[in-house]
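Input sequence (224 aa), recorded before submission:
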Amino acid sequence: MYQMDKNNKVYLSGEIVTKAEFSHEVYGEGFYEMMVSVKRLSGQEDILPITISERLILDKDLKVGSSIFAIGQFRSYNKLVDGKSKLMLTVFIKELFEEDINKNPNTIVLSGYVCKEPIYRTTPFNREIADLLIAVNRSYNKSDYIPCIAWGRNARFVQNLSVGEKVFISGRIQSREYQKRTEDEVKKMTAYEVSISKILAADSVNSFDLESEFISFSYEQNFQ
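Predicted structure, token format:
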């Protein structure tokens, strides 16, 4: 059984929607990428990228249309795109299951540090939103930089956070399409981020145990 990562825990269940494509190799172990559709309770879906070791899929028939139930981490890495470094995000799969083990198909719990001044704004319909970027420590002195989005009272809380402050977050990973205009064309882009359901500052650590939060939050039915 996969041991929970201390600062970054993800559970996903969904349907594979693209073929596995080779991504990279580390110490002789190959890794593959594919996209997974994860349903929300509202009926909408998030199309999320996953990265998985050849070791995990060697005896699995993971093809387009197959169901996948997995635990892992939400990770970031830099990729050179059009001559510029771009932050890429993926769910790095650590363990696969034969059946759905959680009622909630999309769960993430993180602890990390605010590494950029939060951006607070309101929509034309006066809905409050705040963007947050947190650095999550990983093994071997690495860090993942995870964009998060908060709404309503969570947005008001986020706008008062300071760079360097430690936070604890639970929510879901979402995909969001947007348009990027250039001089020649309008490109359709996809952003991946954590939609925050619950956020606490470090001084509330006693009321937010990551492992128990992950287990209990996985069974909540509060996603739209």
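Checked by second reader. The two ends are 30 Å apart (CA to CA).
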